[in-house]
Specification:
Distance between the termini: 44 Å
Number of strands: 8
Largest sheet: 8 strands, parallel
Order of helices and strands: HEHEHEHEHEHEHEHEHHHH
Strand content: 5-15%
Structural class: alpha/beta
Length: 302
Amino acid sequence: MTTTFETQRTALAGVVAIPVTPFAEDGSVDRAGYRALLRRLLDAGITTLTPNGNTGEFYALTPEERRTVTELTLEETGDGSSVLVGVGHDVPTAVASARHARDLGARMVMVHQPVHPYVSQSGWVDYHRAIAEAVPDLGVVPYIRNDRLAGARLAELADSCPNVIGVKYSVPDAARFAAFARDAGLERFVWVAGLAEPYAPSYFSAGATGFTSGLVNVAPSVSLDMIGALRSGDYVTAMKVWEQIRRFEELRGANGSANNVTVVKEALASLGLCRREVRPPSRPLPEDERAEVAAIAAGWSV
């Protein structure tokens, strides 16, 4: 029987939350704190979670910690069809992570953008094909940040791997996204705006039906307001939400997104929800910037 992945496709067409990974005072993963943050998201109505995403400091976690985060997420949700586990690094490591997620009940994986400086377009296809073919029963979602990748390459990948069902598209160019999606097959994939709420309105206008979010850790209701407006085609309301989150996202995106995770954790710390500590190459905010983040977080209905 051919797998249709309809449940997984539906899960991608919404707010795809990227949970932070809180650290305990001794520097280890704060398991209880992580569960509490997940439960807060789930209780607020967020249904799709991406453990081991970039907001979760994927590249700063050890292999064992990445497995732990995956396990905790699947235990807390109890429904693997709405968990999109981040995998990556070399092919054997990514495959092992995907199989570990599958064995725990996950039904989808997101393949991180390859970080090697030498990436050919055909090599990009080969990398993702090797992972997707190893887990044919899982929905696979490439994370695309490469503005040189052609839409035809994604179509080529899906021709041999029908379990490639969605795309986290994170090139900051709405016109390029519109062209890429149409070259790859607009109706063939679930298109997720991978640059979160700031880009969601423009990407939805070009065919996206979901967006990722780190901000959702802080204010789930704000992200839900955005997706509600976009689903109804109410761009006036969506842009009012955009204005509400603009400064927060500007702080995250400054200096090449140097403080992307830091700002989210600082906001959570100001609300008493987790410690502010991040791992290198991220670093905590200086004292003089913490007050602005706290004031923004306090102004939202959280």
